[in-house]
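[Discussion] Sanity-checking designs against the backbone

I'm trying to build intuition for which residues belong where. Below is a structure token string of 118 positions. I'd appreciate it if someone posts a full sequence so I can compare it with mine line by line.
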């Protein structure tokens, strides 16, 4: 078992349900921790055996930036499901950070962990 962490992935999407948020893209920051099964890449140094985190990142960006959300909880759930759909992924933890969501606060975040069933 191994872990890949994608940190501080800055995206822009429409997220929120308050009148001042509707129709406006906002910054969100994602931290994604992927627990997966190794296939010998740590011994062979063969890129074809590695978990392709670049393609995962591109898929997440395309998915999130093309949608509208009311809640950061749903953003986290969608990202977790996308990542967990990869065969080798056993668990994923996603933190979604919404900067400046509250007055006098740097940010608000939501974090969820999902695991492969069965």
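Best answer:
Here's mine. Compare freely.
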């Amino acid at each position: 078992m191994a872990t890949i962490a994608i940190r501080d992935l800055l995206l822009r999407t429409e997220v929120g349900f308050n009148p001042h948020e509707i129709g406006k893209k906002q910054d969100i920051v994602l931290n994604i921790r992927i627990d997966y099964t190794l296939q010998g890449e740590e011994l062979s140094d063969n890129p074809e055996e590695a978990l392709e985190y670049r393609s995962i990142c591109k898929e997440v960006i395309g998915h999130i930036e093309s949608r509208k959300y009311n809640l950061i909880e749903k953003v986290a759930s969608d990202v977790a499901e996308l990542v967990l759909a990869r065969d080798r992924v056993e668990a994923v933890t996603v933190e979604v950070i919404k900067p400046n969501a509250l007055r006098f606060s740097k940010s608000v975040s939501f974090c969820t962990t999902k695991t492969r069933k069965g």
